[in-house]
Amino acid sequence: MTDQPETLSAAPGRVHLVGAGPGAADLLTLRALRLLQQADVVVYDRLVGPDVLELVPPQTETIFVGKMRDRHVLPQAGINQLLISLARAGKRVVRLKGGDPFIFGRGGEELEALAAAGVPFDVVPGITAALGCAAHAGVPLTHRDHAQTLVFVTGHTKDGEVELDWPALVRPHQTIVVYMGAKAVAGLCAKLVAHGLDPATPAALIENGSYPHQRTIAATVATLPGQVPDRRLLGPALIVIGKVVGLRARLAWLAERVEDGALAASRAG
Ligand SMILES: C[S@@+](CC[C@H](N)C(=O)[O-])C[C@H]1O[C@@H](n2cnc3c(N)ncnc32)[C@H](O)[C@@H]1O
Fold this sequence. Notes:
The protein has 269 residues and is of the alpha/beta class. The chain has helices at 30-38, 50-53, 76-88, 107-117, 129-137, 166-169, 185-194, 224-227, 248-251; strands at residues 14-19, 41-44, 61-64, 67-68, 71-72, 92-97, 121-124, 149-154, 174-179, 202-207, 215-220, 237-241, 255-257, 263-265.
């Protein structure tokens, strides 16, 4: 049986892999909302926004399987098994993930496990953090004058080292978005400069993107690491590097949190 996506509704014995967006509840898709309202059980991650969870009906079972850095409440194999068992028990399962399930979200791994177990599934895209953060920070990720290429990379370290294709990343006219890169910001910026990126290239770290307490630290590749010591980061953060970040000076529109906790208009008007 094939589903018509426009009429997709929660089905018993099925897993709906759903993107929750970057945090703000009103960035959820209508399809995601419908499935959340019809689910028997919602299995969710740490980065799903609290306001999104408020949209789950109170009688619906919720299971937190959140992952902290290097520390899983439930290991990935356990999450896969849980989804399979719930679906086999005839539940309408929503597997809710922050952002988009297919962007650094292990959505593919979970679907492979479901496919191998013969459990039916479908996928609902979500607004990935890069899009949510860039929109709220006034940074157009592509621009005819500045960036014709956009790359998403992970700054997650292996043995303390970020392993990326540095020569490809320093090519001109592109924007680099680094997920999970805040802890490694110093090494990341140093490697880019060592491979030829102009140290004056604009760079920003966007924390808690799309939330009312979003904070953007705009600097250059040379100066960003000095402005974001680890201890000052309280929420999820993305790094955006490229000339488009400089447009923020004119395009920022959101009143953001500043150091002393007060709000300041990023741009007058
Ligand atoms: C495991 S990845 C999941 C990405 C997610 N699937 C997506 O599409 O956004 C987690 C990383 O996404 C980024 N992230 C997620 N939500 C964010 C937010 N609201 N603001 C800034 N960065 C965010 C951070 O870099 C965080 O470490």
